[in-house]
Amino acid sequence: MNDYIIRATDKKKQVRAFAAITTNLVEEGRRIHNTSPVVSAALGRLLTAAGMMGYMLKGEKDIITLQIRGDGPIKGLVVTSDSKGNVRGYPYNSLVDLPLNSIGKLDVKTAIGNGYLTVIKDLGLKEPYIGQTKLVSGEIAEDLTYYFYNSEQIPSAVALGVLVDRDWSIKKAGGFIIQLMPEADEETISTLESNLKKIHSVTSLLDEGKTPEELLEILLGEIEINDKLPVQYHCNCSREKIKKALISIGLKDLKEMLEEDKQGEVKCHFCNTAYLFNEEDLKEIIKELS
């Protein structure tokens, strides 16, 4: 199944909902960063969430970045998405080995630990919007639910699932974000709460082959699909962008690099592509700065 996100409402238009299948996207992130299973689960959840939150953006050039910093062995994660379904990300530590938790699941909570979730929205204004909340569980979905309620005042339910196969590849990944509209009545809220309680594991539903449409029908009954968006792992790095990053380290460090190594290699965090700048390249950059 190809990866995609749907945007929908309930039949009364009192709930807006997003649901996604992101198996290929998460597998590409796993492959690029060679992540261990617990890191794959953490990164995959955040990649899936970012894809759906990017879909919420209105402008074509808008970008959302989700950052998690924790005191667990992963140390942190950074994921970014645009409004067109292009998502990329990386963990600070790709290889973390932990025993399964008390219910036999990958222990994402311990891997992330205590810390903060930061959401940065670059909407083309002078300053980006930045919202930050404490991690309430380290499980990511609950942390995003808490963020939506406290930073954006939107009652939400977030569920994210990543099923890692025995060979460490991604078997299934996806999730949903459900948000109440201001006009939602008690009947709608009560029905939604009841249906949410029936879902014990979104991962199990994905493993059963449930589609994004079927996930939302379980929660909302009859739905009206507004649109559908393909989603993929895509890094937009380029030699020119990496050159700008190299310039930003400053003239002094560039001269040291030239004198000591005669070249510089810069690797993109998001896709691990290495860009080599030889002696002539460094001399040219230094000349531009001088």
Elements, N to C (H/E):
EEHHEEEHEEHEEHHHEEHHEEH
Q: Which fold does the CATH topology of the largest domain refer to? A: Hsp33 domain
Shape from CA axes?
A: globular
Low-confidence stretches: none
Largest sheet: 6 strands, mixed
The number of helices is 10
Distance N terminus to C terminus?
53 Å
Proportion of β residues? 25-35%
The mean pLDDT is 93
Based on secondary structure, the structural category is alpha+beta
The CATH C-level class name of the largest domain: Alpha Beta
Helix content: 25-40%
Task: Give structural notes.
With 290 residues, the chain is an alpha+beta fold. It folds into two domains: 4-233, Hsp33 domain (3-Layer(bab) Sandwich), CATH 3.55.30; 239-289, Alpha-Beta Complex (CBS domain Like). It contains ten helices and 13 strands. It has a six-stranded mixed beta sheet with strand order 7-6-3-4-5-11, with helices on one face. Strands 8-9-2-1-10 form a five-stranded antiparallel beta sheet, sandwiched between helices. Helix 1 (23-33) crosses helix 2 and helix 9 packs antiparallel against helix 10. The model has no long low-confidence stretch (mean pLDDT 93).
Ordered list of secondary-structure elements with their pairings:
Blueprint: E1 4-10, E2 15-21, H1 23-33, H2 37-55, E3 63-70, E4 76-82, E5 86-91, H3 108-112, E6 115-122, E7 129-134, H4 141-151, E8 156-164, E9 170-180, H5 186-198, H6 202-207, H7 212-220, E10 223-230, E11 232-233, H8 239-247, H9 251-261, E12 264-267, E13 274-277, H10 279-289
Parallel strand pairs: 5-11
Antiparallel strand pairs: 1-2, 1-10, 2-9, 3-4, 3-6, 4-5, 6-7, 8-9, 12-13
